[in-house]
Design a protein that fits this description.
It is built from 10 helices and 15 strands. The chain is an alpha/beta fold and 341 residues long. It binds NADP nicotinamide-adenine-dinucleotide phosphate and ligand F7E.
Amino acid sequence: MKTALITGVTGQDGSYLAELLLKRGYRVYGLNRRKALAGMDNLKNVLNNNNFEMVEGDLSEESRLNAIIRDLQPNEIYNLAAQTFVPYSWTNPLYTCNINCLGVLRILEAIRIYSPGSRFYQASSSEIFGKTKEKSQNEMTYHYPRSPYGCSKSFGFNIARNYRESYGLFVCNGILFNHESERRGLEFVTRKITHTLAEIELGLSEKLILGNLNARRDWGYAPDYVKAMWMIMHHKKPDDYIVSTGEDHTIRDFAELAFKAVGIDIRWEGEGLNEKGLAGNKVLVEVSKKYYRPAEVDILKGNASKARKILGWKPETTFEEMIKRMVEHDVDLLKRSNGEN
Ligand code: NAP
Ligand code: F7E
């Protein structure tokens, strides 16, 4: 039986990947750090599976990572754990780099010394491109990160590639553009929109307060993207791949489609800080500087033609379908927690 270790298993991607690997007959070990409250919602489909096991550990703890990798000798290691929230990386840059830079290196060293036969996947990010001049970004696009998070992911990418080239290890980077789902953390803009919208719909919130509405992102659906991770790890040659839809949309587009999904047309008025989304006479959406970033990534759009051609991967879920699923899920979730279902 094939074995896989997933770091970041409690997160959005880790939980979908655990489900995918269990379906494909793997024994899956999920790295989990101690939390005051359990926070295992994303894992409800896998926790009772006999082929799933949690292992205690943290990307900051080298000796523990060494022991886990030495003892398990996993066929595949997916490093999805990270400090993932871009704004938090300005307030906690050293912590972000400890986990997102040194954390990657700790695992690579453990593989090199104790388990050189393990295949390794590093969760890289489109944030490495930041203030790009390219209309769409591919594997060769110059890195110009705009946040400590982006810088940390650039290091992670480069050190992973360097271990492949220096030691001949089977090491791959997936450079994934934004991908969202019903399991997305509540602070990221897409889920913040769908969850607050559900609150407004049920009368639990009055309005949605956002930052920069004009940033453009290439948003895909997380379950489609974890399939790409597996395909990257199963190509005969280890390599780096962009994973994206090739479409970009503004935050404003996302919000408008989300409101439409529950039958509300937002009418935007004014510009910049005076923007308000109106339904009838009620203000629904406001812009606050509080959510502006010290340095913004204005636009990202990926060119995934290498993954399409070499791996045969392509996104399956449209932007509209994804938004509809997220909105319906959040309305249903809040109705249930409100005792309405
Ligand atoms: P996520 O939902 O925020 O999950 C992050 C995971 O990392 C959680 O399981 C978290 O555990 C774990 N983690 C954080 N710090 C840790 C530490 N010190 N030791 C061990 N585990 C730790 O992230 P995601 O959206 O699934 O993203 C997965 C990976 O892809 C990340 O590396 C992210 O940077 C990268 N990425 C994401 C996107 C995207 O759009 N989603 C795009 C490109 C790249 P807790 O539950 O304990 O917090
Ligand atoms: O912001 C703007 C904000 O926090 C997207 C992570 O998964 O994807 C994610 O990083 C955009 C930015 O994601 C709000 O200024 C406006 O331009 O949803 P986000 P992100 O920063 O793109 C990359 C690929 C990763 O690797 C990361 O781990 O939306 N925005 N108003 C807002 N953003 C937030 N969070 N909240 C707002 O109210």
